[in-house]
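User: I'm new to structure prediction. If I give you an amino acid sequence, what do you actually give back? Let's try with this one:
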Amino acid sequence: MINKELLLKNLRNVPDFPVKGIQFKDVSTLFKSPVCLKMMVDELYEIYKDKGITKVVGIESRGFVVGGALAYKLGAGFVMCRKPGKLPAETRRCTYMKEYGEDSIEIHSDAINSQDVVLLHDDLLATGGSMKAAMNLVKEFRPRKIYINFLIELRIEGLIGREQFEGVAEITRLLEI
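Assistant: Good question. You get back a string of structure tokens that encode the predicted 3D arrangement of the chain. For your 177 residues, that looks like this:
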């Protein structure tokens, strides 16, 4: 069972990073705690163990940590969704807007197939820009089903992150702040 208070106690807030006005939620403090890391992976495993997940897509870079561990525990493959120029073979790319600028992400062109059931994983949902871009990339492969997960969902007035995915994919998160 997940101990939300323990996770919140171990989550670091970094003011004005990467730009002034942003309150960055630093999940690296959750990853360095063996208790928190195990708790998060175990809880996600319980949520997804019966969903038939064949691929977990982790979004650079914090989505790689829990996403990779969860893929292992589920017996699924792991796919990296990375910033441009980081993947060595042919890729598909999507550009998106985020809180403080424009960015792009890529996935290898042979990473997913139409028989896959895909879980997209990232650390935090704020505006949803990077996850929407990742979902659009994954949809190009026409997998059987797509699930979306975040460790943390920010519920701040004006952020419409979750709204972009409702009715498109099942969304879960471990913490809401």
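You can read the tokens as a compact description of the fold. Here is one thing that stands out. The helical segments are 4-10, 28-31, 34-48, 63-74, 129-140.
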